[in-house]
Design goal:
Layout lengths: L20 E5 L3 H13 L7 E4 L8 H4 L17 E5 L3 H14 L5 E4 L9 H19 L2
Parallel strand pairs: 1-2, 3-4
Antiparallel strand pairs: 1-3
Length: 142
């Protein structure tokens, strides 16, 4: 990532950066319901969630994190599909990702908030995540 580096998340109880919240991009209303249900299944039903759409594309992650729980719920989003977590433990993020994958939901981008990324617009973060995902895929195919 520009101005930062990709770091693999460990499987510890260490709390990661930021307030406890999830930013969700690119989900249609039915998928939003599924995601909230998934959070409940992994014991995270109390975690605040903000649903992001195109109108939010130039807003910084830091500003999006100030939004109320369930903001944007029910609105259609044509953005890249992604989940950005804030304030999770590393173990909690691993649990969420593995459960998401087991349920068989569509592939998406994943990120954890950092002091660098919180200053970026959501669009900038999604672009960086897409580049990162492509680089990881290329490395795996070598």
């Amino acid at each position: 990532m520009s101005e930062g580096t990709f770091q693999k998340i460990k499987n510890t109880e260490e709390k990661m950066y930021g307030p406890l919240k999830v930013l969700v991009c690119g989900y249609q209303p039915d998928d939003q319901e599924l995601f909230l249900s998934l959070l409940g299944q992994v014991g995270m039903g109390n975690v605040p969630v903000v649903f992001i759409n195109e109108e939010d594309s130039e807003i910084t992650l830091k500003d999006l994190l100030y939004r109320a729980d369930r903001s944007g719920f029910g609105k259609t989003s044509r953005m890249r599909r992604a989940v950005i977590t804030s304030g999770f433990t590393q173990k909690g993020l691993h649990l969420l990702i593995s459960t998401y994958n087991q349920v068989g939901l569509p592939a998406q981008l994943w990120a954890a908030l950092t002091p660098i990324s919180e200053k970026w617009s959501i669009n900038h973060l999604l672009e960086e995540l897409a580049k990162e995902a492509a680089a990881i895929k290329r490395a795996k195919n070598k």
